[in-house]
Amino acid sequence: MEAHVDLWLGELGAPPLGTDAGLTPVDELRLTNRPLLLERLKRARTLTHAWEAAHDEPASGLPGDPESLVAEATAAGLLDFLPLDDATTLRWLQTGDRWPAAVPLALTPEDLGLTTSQLDDAER
């Protein structure tokens, strides 16, 4: 039976059973990803608020409460597979309609053309 499974896996381009896939254990990924995601979501909230204010756009309230979004991402399994990066976070926010349509998809002030004073104003 194992030989048949290994043959099938090989046809799919996967390694045989028992092969170390080099993946980080899920519990470790969750512990690592949770604070990273929370920091990114807090930054996203400030950046979107600052961009909307700087461009006279109505406040969308997106992406939403960072703690609630982390809980949502955890329940969806976003923290379970790979270390999270900005691109993955932005893609998740965008595909879930959690990113304002008017705001460019970026998580740095430079990419959004925001000044330090605009960010300071948004944090107040």
Protein architecture, described:
The structure is a single chain. With 124 residues, the protein is mostly helical. The chain has one domain. Helix content is 58%, strand content 0%. The chain is built from six helices and no strands. The protein has helices spanning 2-11, 26-54, 66-76, 86-95, 109-112, 116-123. Helix 2 (26-54) crosses helix 3 (66-76) and helix 2 packs across helix 6.
Structure keywords:
124 residues; 6 helices; mainly alpha
Describe the main β-sheet briefly. Answer: none
Number of domains: 1
Note poorly predicted spans: none
Q: How many angstroms does the end-to-end distance come to?
A: 63 Å
Structural class category: mainly alpha
Helix content estimate = 55-70%
Mean pLDDT: 93
Radius of gyration: 19 Å
The helix/strand order is: HHHHHH
Total helical elements: 6
Q: What general outline do the C-alpha atoms trace?
A: elongated
Tally of strands: 0
Query: Beta-strand percentage?
Result: under 5%
Provide a quick synopsis of the model.
By secondary structure, this protein is an all-alpha fold. The chain has 6 helices and no strands.
Give the SSE layout:
Blueprint: H1 2-11, H2 26-54, H3 66-76, H4 86-95, H5 109-112, H6 116-123
